[in-house]
Amino acid sequence: MYNAAVSKKQTHPTGISGCPECNGSGWIRLVKDGIAGVQRCDCFRQARVERLIVNARIPSRYTHCELKNFDLNEKLTTKSIEFAKLAAEAFVDEFPSSTPIGLLFMGPQGVGKTHLAVGIIKALMKRKAVPCMFRAFPELLKEIQMSYSPISESSELFLLAPVLETDVLVLDELGSQTPSTWVKDTVSYVLNHRYSENKVTIFTTNYLDGEDPMSTRKGVFYSLRDRIGDQMRSRLYEMCKTIVMAGNDFRQNIMDAEYRQFKKGR
Ligand SMILES: Nc1ncnc2c1ncn2[C@@H]1O[C@H](COP(=O)(O)OP(=O)(O)O)[C@@H](O)[C@H]1O
Ligand SMILES: [Mg+2]
Ligand SMILES: [Zn+2]
Q1: 59-258 falls under which CATH superfamily?
Q2: Is the CB of 105 under 6 A from ligand 1?
Q3: pLDDT in tens, 198-239
Q4: Distance (Å, whole) CA 159 – CA 138
């Protein structure tokens, strides 16, 4: 039987090249109830996941991050970090929920906010084939600024299009850049667009809503509200479940003998 789908797919492989099951075509011939037909080869799905992961633009320093290698240790992990991991897992299990609601991970440097955010989108791509994207907000703004020229105002939109359209977006380090009017406008453009399109966004920020009474870090306190403006902070309440993570910098914990013992004992 001549099958147009098969011959077309063979010239434009959709599976993994060199797959012994389908020779990279992504299709397998089969006979069911005496009728010849085709079905997707397993490598088709695998190739799709690989493409999603490449397109997600996860920076190499975070490619190791998975939900399953986010360690919890009773001596070093605080309750809020344990809760954050549970919330991340529940988010993946329940996706897509009937009311699209994102997550906002708040907490000091090094508690594992970015690790959890990356872990979530990797699980969504692998388990549910959801198109996802990772962008660090300060870098995104720099790219837009550099690409901007008075002749082509559209370059800004061209760069922002994938950020506006992807199903699940991680916006890392919200509030880290100097809150100029232009920065606040760009934040509100992205947030308002995703909000009105019912798209899910996962944010991380080193800023809190109020000063942490336990904090030993000295200096002038700035809240997330100070960094992105009142209106955008309120919009985030509507778009996200807020998850505050308190704890020490994980990179210092790695140096801790107790943690090394815990890793060895597994
Ligand atoms: N609970 C954890 N288990 C394993 N690795 C962790 C954990 N928390 C943080 N890390 C690692 O420590 C480093 C800093 O974490 P990161 O997520 O970048 O912190 P944050 O975004 O809160 O500043 C990363 O390499 C991350 O993979
Ligand atoms: Mg981070
Ligand atoms: Zn195959």
Answers
A1: P-loop containing nucleotide triphosphate hydrolases (3.40.50.300)
A2: no
A3: 999 999 999 999 887 767 666 778 899 988 889 999 999 999
A4: 14
